[in-house]
UniProtKB/TrEMBL annotation:
Keywords: 2Fe-2S, 3Fe-4S, 4Fe-4S, Iron, Iron-sulfur, Metal-binding, Oxidoreductase, Tricarboxylic acid cycle. Residues 160-182 form the 4Fe-4S ferredoxin-type domain. The keyword Transmembrane helix does not apply. Binds 1 [4Fe-4S] cluster. Binds 1 [2Fe-2S] cluster. Transmembrane segments: none annotated. Pathway: Carbohydrate metabolism; tricarboxylic acid cycle. GO terms for biological process: respiratory electron transport chain; tricarboxylic acid cycle. Its cofactor is [4Fe-4S] cluster; [2Fe-2S] cluster; [3Fe-4S] cluster. Residues 25-119 form the 2Fe-2S ferredoxin-type domain. It catalyses: a quinone + succinate = fumarate + a quinol. Belongs to the succinate dehydrogenase/fumarate reductase iron-sulfur protein family. This is Succinate dehydrogenase iron-sulfur subunit. Pfam families: Fer2_3, Fer4_10. It comes from Streptantibioticus silvisoli.
Amino acid sequence: MSTTTVESKHSAALDAAETGDAHLITVTLRVRRFNPEVSDQVVWVDYEMQMDPKERVLDALHKIKWELDGTLTFRRSCAHGICGSDAMRINGRNRLACKTLLKDINPEKPITVEPIKGLTVLKDLVVDMEPFFQAFRDVMPFLVTKGNEPTRERLQSAEDRARFDDTTKCILCAACTSSCPVFWNDGQYFGPAAIVNAHRFIFDSRDEAGEQRLEILNDRDGVWRCRTTFNCTDACPRGIEVTKAIQEVKRALLTRRF
Ligand code: SF4
Ligand code: FES
């Protein structure tokens, strides 16, 4: 594995003199590069650039892509923490690049950026999300009701709604699942995100497929694989209490009350 360096053409002093951007600092992004069409070897490439410390890692990745090396490949869409497409390992921790300010991650040192773990890397920072989404689909992430069509909407008390409020916040970024050591060791495990999304419907008073979802998660690759390491809760950019949700599903399986 080797490391090469790509620098922006202007020096910091020259940039500052030309533009008055004295607040800019030199930032090095150390990015894990992999392109199976070129080589089966991984290389780490250092990209040096002038950045405002209040900018985000996503801004630095854009600068690389647009000004230094157009071959760098990563996913992003909304750029505002909503779509969940830019989860990556930044300085060894899963985060959304669009929600991570440079000033908060020690920009004086090289900032490492690599793909999330446990899913096959397709190119650079892009992983194959299909196993992750299949686990999500497997828990039936939609409301299931049998008959009794309401004439207007299905009513629910504020208290019942609060029961699953936390797990409605999931943006399917995979930061939780790809930070889970059980998932790293055995990609068959449903993973925290699928359980969070099952929780969202199991505890919805309007839904009638809770038992079915619990049986799906009672599988050998279901909730019982969780080792309560809290990595998932630490990684979640939405602040969801992922481990608590998993515990609640486990308890519902034991008591059949939800
Ligand atoms: S629970 Fe949090 S970390 Fe996991 S997929 Fe949803 S938003 Fe991302
Ligand atoms: S780009 Fe959409 S969440 Fe970061």
